[in-house]
Specification:
The chain is an alpha/beta fold. Helix content is 40%, strand content 16%.
Length: 342
């Protein structure tokens, strides 16, 4: 059986250094970390987690509450969480809530108690789930992507409002004045902030808000609901020349609906998405979108949770990761607005 001393000998470092690398504690030079991890892989070393857990009264289990495994956004976030948790010696228990309304106080409490989890990461908290605040200081819990504003719980996300505003401002810079939005009928803070960002951009540009240009898709951002929302917008007497969508899946639905109606993207209609999931570059035209670092969100959320499990005094409470606007093939300068139907 390979021991930690064998790993230290193979890597040419001390046992304490191997322990710091495996537990991601303390400062270790990147080159030293690589030596240790190569030694771990070469020797197929597996730490004796059971003995350590008994000494520390830990379960070494992390609960992850996710609403939709099939959505590529969540699958990429989950990959980041699971990669880090495995390196830290944690097992992950992923619970599918199916939708945000299925996540309630009784579920969170029962999952913690039944599984003796050391911590929890939530991916689908509603913006008004204030009941979650009672867990502040009681259980280590991190809100990833979605969170409750003003709640005294750590969270990690991107600045959705700023990202949406920048995306719509790009459309305005291309000459678009009549810009629609396909948002979602859910209670996520991200959806609300992306709508706020859309409205911010219009206000700054002096473009009046038009309620008829705001269409709502399903709570789970389904492709079919994106198509339906697009049909509503494009059937208006004066349809928009551009549509900003709060998710890439919805944007792909808009493009499909536009094609069925005889419109060419981007010449007849510009479309932008949000998230930059893999589907955006599978078929032409490639989707212009806001790139969200999904994998990094997952990775950092697990590291953040680990800091709170370890009760680090300087553990962060609020993290916003950078986003970027990816210009591809679904946006173009605006043609003249079509005259109103008589």
């Amino acid at each position: 059986m390979v021991k930690i001393e064998d790993v230290a000998r193979e890597a040419g470092v001390s046992v304490a250094t191997v322990s710091r690398v495996l537990n991601e504690q303390g400062r270790v030079l990147p080159e030293t970390q690589r030596k240790v991890r190569r030694a771990v892989e070469a020797l197929r070393y597996e730490p004796n987690l059971s003995a350590r857990n008994l000494r520390r009264n830990e379960s070494r289990i992390i609960l992850i509450l996710a609403p939709n495994f099939s959505n590529p956004y969540y699958s990429n976030v989950l990959s980041g969480i699971c990669d880090v948790s495995r390196n830290l010696g944690y097992s992950t228990l992923i619970y599918n809530t199916y939708d945000s309304d299925a996540l309630d106080e009784s579920l969170v409490s029962s999952l913690f108690q039944k599984n003796r989890a050391d911590g929890m990461i939530t991916l689908a908290i509603n913006r008004d789930d204030r009941w979650l605040e009672q867990y502040a200081g009681k259980y280590p819990l991190v809100q990833c992507s979605e969170y409750v504003e003003e709640a005294a719980l750590p969270h990690i996300s991107v600045d959705n409002r700023l990202a949406a505003r920048e995306s719509v401002q790009r459309l305005i810079a291309l000459g678009h004045q009549r810009i629609g939005i396909v948002t979602s009928a859910n209670r996520y803070l991200s959806s609300e902030n992306r709508l706020r960002g859309y409205l911010d951009a219009l206000e700054v540009a002096g473009i009046p808000k038009s309620d008829e240009l705001i269409a709502y898709a399903s709570a789970d951002y389904s492709f079919a609901s994106g198509k339906q929302a697009a049909r509503e917008l494009l059937a208006l007497p004066r349809p928009p020349s551009a549509v900003f969508c709060v998710s890439d899946i919805l944007a792909l639905g808009v493009i499909a609906a536009a094609g069925k109606m005889g419109l060419q993207v981007p010449w007849d209609l510009s479309v932008t998405g949000f998230d930059d999931v893999d589907y955006t570059t599978m078929f032409h035209p490639y989707l212009t979108t806001v790139a969200v670092p999904c994998y990094e969100l997952g990775r950092r959320s697990m590291l953040l949770l680990y800091d709170h499990i370890a009760q680090k005094a300087d553990a962060e409470r609020e993290i916003y990761l950078p986003h970027s606007i990816i210009q591809r093939e679904t946006t173009a300068p605006c043609a003249a607005d079509k005259p109103e139907a008589e």
